Fold this sequence. Notes:
Blueprint: E1 4-5, H1 9-14, E2 18-22, E3 25-30, H2 34-43, E4 45-49, E5 54-59, H3 62-65, H4 67-70, E6 83-89, E7 95-105, E8 108-113, H5 118-128, E9 133-135, E10 140-146, H6 150-154, H7 162-165, E11 171-176, E12 179-184, E13 193-199, H8 203-211, E14 216-218, H9 221-230, H10 264-273, E15 277-284, E16 295-298, E17 301-312, E18 317-325, E19 334-338, E20 343-349
Parallel strand pairs: 1-3, 4-14
Antiparallel strand pairs: 2-3, 4-10, 5-8, 5-9, 6-7, 7-8, 10-13, 11-12, 12-13, 15-18, 15-20, 16-17, 16-19, 17-18, 19-20
Helix pairs in contact: 2-9
Amino acid sequence: MDGYKTPLYERHLQLKAKIAPFAGWLMPIQYTSILEEHRWTRTQCSLFDTCHMGEILISGSLNESGLDKVVTMNLKDLPIGRCAYGFMLNERGGIIDDLIVYKLAEDKWMLVVNAGPLEKDVAHLKKHIKTGLKNVSSETAKLDLQGPFSREILKQWVTSKGLDKLKYYHFSHFPLLGKQTLISRTGYTGELGFEFYVPASKAEDLWELFLSDKRVKPAGLGARDTLRLEMGYPLYGQDLTEDTTPLEAGLSRFVDFNKDFIGKDALLKQKKVGITKRLVGFVADTRRAPRHGYKIWADNQEVGLITSGSFAPSLGKGIGMGYVNTEYAKAGQQIVIGDGRVEIKAVIAKRPFYKGGSLHIG
Length: 362
């Protein structure tokens, strides 16, 4: 197999992980089973290798750097120690990438972007950022500790009282492995969790430290996908692309129309004219997993296409997301999903599908 390897690649092989290409990287899909890793994350604590994600540092104030015009979210009122989710758009309003921006200081920012569009992201930023820009992805490792016991477990090594006060989408630096480490209370699972940014040379040490606690087990991208789907979190490259806009994806709350940004004119025009398709979630009436690319039918006509689908271990049913014609986007709409051979009955449902997570504990 060809692809980039994270600093933890050899550790995954030692743990007999199933490895497969993802966004140009050789990543662990599962160690035991996706179902087991999913359930362990929901009830205990799992460790994920997310070193494939990209990190980009930008220096300069919000206006001097030009960052404010490149992203859609409100950064003007963002305090130091907070992070915000939003988008980089093209002139058509299409999503170049979804990302999280960390405010490290008044004149220093970190962008955490997806692995697949990293090169595209950097090229786009270089066109518009007027001050310093540094892609530190290759020298940065990122690990995720996710699950209801993640904070209790982490407190063995991070004794600062500030950890208890760390709120959702807040971050700070804490001593860990003898070094000040950026820890953010963020994640992609719907559970209480933390993300860690360390030098790539420290990735193995941090990995082994966390796994020294028997309550922590490694989890792969398979469980990460089922966990995020149960929460209705979109995945770039499937649910979000350059051919979809935040309005069509139902994510306009992450767009600040009170400022100027690339793609704003296109979105305003789309708001005025109206969208013709919308990203929706659905729940099947069986355990059968809907698949990416399946067609969506209603009233004996094709009305949309599935972008993500899976069996939901926490619900015992198939779930997914896809774009449908807006007139069929209301919750409760009966649909049929299939590919000509498979036919699954389902209903449009509000997200998140799973509501029992520990995400907002404390």
